[in-house]
Amino acid sequence: MAVKIAGIGSYVPEKILTNFDLEKMVDTSDEWITSRTGIRVRHISEPEVPTSDLALNAAKRAMEMAGITAEQLDIISVATITGDYHFPSTACVLQDKLGATSNCACYDLQAACSGLIYSNDVATAMLKHRKHAKYALVVGAEKLSGVVDWTDRSTCVLFGDGASALVLVKDDDDQGDDTLLTTVLGAKGGNAQILKIPAGGSVLPASHETIDNKQHFIQMGGPEVFKLAVTAMASASKAALAEFNLTVDQLRWVIPHQANKRIIDAVCSRLGATEEQVYVNVDRYGNTSAASIGICLDEIVRGGMIKPGDYVLLTSFGAGMTWGAALLRWK
Ligand code: UT7
Fold this sequence. Notes:
Elements: E1 2-11, E2 16-18, H1 19-23, H2 30-37, E3 41-43, H3 51-66, E4 75-79, H4 90-98, E5 105-109, H5 115-129, E6 135-142, H6 153-156, E7 162-171, E8 180-187, E9 195-196, H7 208-212, E10 219-220, H8 222-243, E11 251-256, H9 261-271, H10 282-285, H11 292-302, E12 311-318, E13 322-329
Parallel strand pairs: 4-5, 4-6, 11-12
Antiparallel strand pairs: 1-7, 2-3, 6-7, 8-13, 9-10, 12-13
Helix pairs in contact: 3-4, 8-9
């Protein structure tokens, strides 16, 4: 029995926010944003569009590529930090929008920017463990524009909205490997306070005061996150490669989480990856958290830039702090 990726899709809202637009909103410049982050534009949802709608568009594209209907889904996993509600889960909302059956297990997974790597690992294991399950929909979807303080220049220039989705299929007759060869995951809750939305949970429930203090928006110690991200992504990636005795030159693609071009460069230089191996689209989308890696993979697949047998390394880092690396062999 083997699990493979049968379909992939992504979606970003049409509306674009450029660095020049941001120059008019906060004390920043295109020069600063481009040189410090590599970001030029990001896509922003209309206020009334929820995360589940972004997820729905990406999911439909992935399911179309896989050639399956919603009734065939056994698992829906949505990785997000910007779900439609605290509860119900965005996966349940998505189930309803897709028209999936009540036999489908639905859950959200919260590992911030590492969400898709965590979720892909969990859903692959669930498919293998559950005898009658065949198809899993793994989504990373974020409407970060709704949790960004648009007066805080240190964060508002970084994030964008978007979604990506994978359809995983279990083939009982396939005696080969899964597409996902291995996942290395890690977390360090001791650093949790460096990147968070302070209010709205049980520690600091919503109140007039939390709203006045802007505590429902993302707060981040950027330079601290930067250093931790580089170290964790590089070491998780090396650990994933070591498990299969692979060297970096054997990889067709390295797909790092798209938070900052300087982080991507630092991780890839530690790994010894060449420019041709590293996929970068942070300039066009900014940081879309759980969606980012899947958007890259979708562009690679739809652009015909991958073939069976290619090794692909995904790596990410995010709030929690969480991190991960996943080694794939394309089928
Ligand atoms: O998805 C995972 C989570 N997020 C990340 O991975 C992001 C990790 N961190 C980063 O990408 C970078 O740390 C940032 C892009 C957030 C910041 O870049 P930096 O090179 O670490 O800059 P900094 O925070 O050290 O700030 C340098 C200066 C400061 O001014 P002073 O104190 O030197 O006068 C900031 O106030 O840049 C200033 N600054 C800005 N200036 C113009 C901060 N934001 C801006 C801005 N425009 N948007």
